[in-house]
């Protein structure tokens, strides 16, 4: 078992690490040797969309995932609170010497084309009437938290946006890990992505309370 | 934000994706920079970074910020090379610029649409106002 980062955040503003977060950690631990082989002797550009508390990115830095060539870590979140939390979590866990940049961004819109080798996304996957609008003030704490949870129709609106951009986000050898809940209909999503020429593999799934969570891996075939 | 990060940021405006001028962003010459000498130089990391960076973009951003120390061509260094004194000098320059230098406050704009983005407390904000998002 790899060590899990120590987290202390204000959970009124950022998403408290839950079963889904821990599933991402377990998935990445399980994929360690796959990633090491894939990015052998090569510096990787690692990008997490929506890091929230920063638990996943810090876990990656702490455990030299994908490899020990010293990756460049980019953590992109729409919420200023999440960016602050991610920086704090990095420091709290002694990862100041790693290259991490936190960037306020709407998903991957600001990322240079085809530069990401490892993409990790634990999206707002909860089905809701709509994806909430971005709060106009930093102090609208609960509204920022809603953004981390609610994914519109089927909980897929935000995830679908990223899937649509995957081809421009990932480098040639790039790998994406994306989390789904059962109500996202992940099998259908996977099938559709395969038709578009992606290799899609179910890496891990788990029953978490009344939810069934799964993480799929996407690579170019 | 450390200077190297500029090598991964483009304009968020979708319409600019069809332009070659949406990357790199143009950095305002008045950006407030900070030099953190406490970060040790790791030549191997820098050589690895070299393989991944868009060199022209780096040179451009460095020039925006008033630094003309980078050679116009990407230095040809590979992991495992025996490093000459000249190589080490280049690596030290790169370390000082890409890793030790951060932009704390300032602004940057798209070379295509001119949209201005701000950096505050060292964090770049690439969000668009609702009418452009």
TrEMBL record, chain A:
InterPro entries, per database record: DNA_methylase_N6_adenine_CS, Euk-Arch_PrmC-MTase, PrmC-related, SAM-dependent_MTases_sf, Small_mtfrase_dom
Coiled-coil residue windows: none
Alphabetical UniProt keywords: Methyltransferase, S-adenosyl-L-methionine, Transferase
A single GO cellular-component term on record: eRF1 methyltransferase complex
Recorded GO MF terms: nucleic acid binding; protein methyltransferase activity; S-adenosylmethionine-dependent methyltransferase activity
Domain Methyltransferase small: 35-129
Presence of the UniProt keyword Coiled coil in the record: no
Pfam families given in the database record: MTS
Gene3D superfamilies per the UniProt record, alphabetical: Vaccinia Virus protein VP39
Biological process per Gene Ontology, one example term: methylation
PANTHER family: METHYLTRANSFERASE N6AMT1
Family of the protein in this entry: Belongs to the eukaryotic/archaeal PrmC-related family.
Protein name listed in UniProt: S-adenosylmethionine-dependent methyltransferase
Organism of derivation: Zygosaccharomyces mellis
Annotated gene: MTQ2
Automatic annotation (TrEMBL), chain B:
Localization: Cytoplasm; Nucleus
InterPro entries, per the entry: Trm112 (IPR039127), Trm112-like (IPR005651)
Gene Ontology cellular component terms for the protein in this record: cytoplasm; nucleus
Gene Ontology BP annotations: rRNA (guanine-N7)-methylation; tRNA methylation
Residue ranges the record marks as coiled coil: none
SUPFAM superfamilies given in the database record: Trm112p-like
Sample GO molecular function, one term: protein heterodimerization activity
Keyword rRNA-binding part of the UniProt annotation: no
Keywords, ordered alphabetically: Cytoplasm, Nucleus
Similarity-based family: Belongs to the TRM112 family.
Record's protein name: Multifunctional methyltransferase subunit trm112
């Amino acid at each position: 078992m790899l060590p899990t980062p120590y987290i202390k955040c204000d959970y009124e503003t950022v998403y408290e690490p839950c079963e889904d977060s821990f599933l991402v950690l377990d998935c990445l631990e399980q994929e360690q040797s796959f990633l090491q082989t894939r990015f052998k002797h090569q510096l990787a550009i690692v990008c997490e969309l929506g890091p929230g508390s920063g638990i996943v990115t810090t876990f990656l830095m702490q455990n030299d995932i994908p490899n020990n060539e010293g990756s460049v870590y980019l953590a992109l979140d729409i919420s200023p609170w999440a960016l602050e939390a991610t920086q704090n979590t990095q420091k709290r866990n002694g990862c100041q010497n790693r290259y991490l940049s936190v960037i306020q961004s709407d998903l991957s819109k600001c990322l240079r084309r085809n530069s990401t080798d490892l993409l990790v996304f634990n999206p707002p996957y909860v089905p809701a009437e709509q994806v909430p609008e971005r709060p106009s003030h930093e102090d609208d704490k609960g509204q920022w938290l809603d953004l981390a949870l609610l994914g519109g129709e089927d909980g897929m609106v935000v995830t679908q946006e990223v899937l649509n951009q995957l081809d421009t986000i990932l480098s040639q050898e790039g790998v994406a890990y994306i989390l789904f809940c059962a109500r996202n209909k992940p099998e259908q999503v996977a099938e559709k992505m395969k038709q578009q020429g992606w290799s899609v593999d179910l890496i891990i799934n788990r029953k978490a309370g009344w939810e069934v969570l799964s993480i799929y891996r996407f690579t170019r075939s | 934000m450390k200077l190297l990060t500029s090598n991964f940021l483009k304009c968020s405006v979708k319409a600019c994706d069809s332009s070659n001028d949406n990357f790199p962003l143009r950095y305002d010459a008045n950006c407030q920079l900070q030099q953190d000498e406490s970060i040790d130089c790791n030549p191997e990391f820098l050589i690895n970074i070299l393989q991944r960076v868009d060199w022209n973009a780096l040179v451009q951003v460095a020039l925006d910020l008033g630094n003309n120390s980078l050679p116009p061509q990407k230095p040809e260094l590979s992991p495992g090379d025996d490093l000459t004194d000249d190589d080490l000098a280049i690596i030290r320059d790169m370390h000082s610029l890409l890793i030790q230098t951060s932009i704390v406050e300032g602004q940057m704009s798209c070379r295509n649409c001119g949209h201005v983005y701000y950096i505050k407390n060292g964090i770049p904000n690439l969000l668009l106002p609702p009418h452009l998002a």
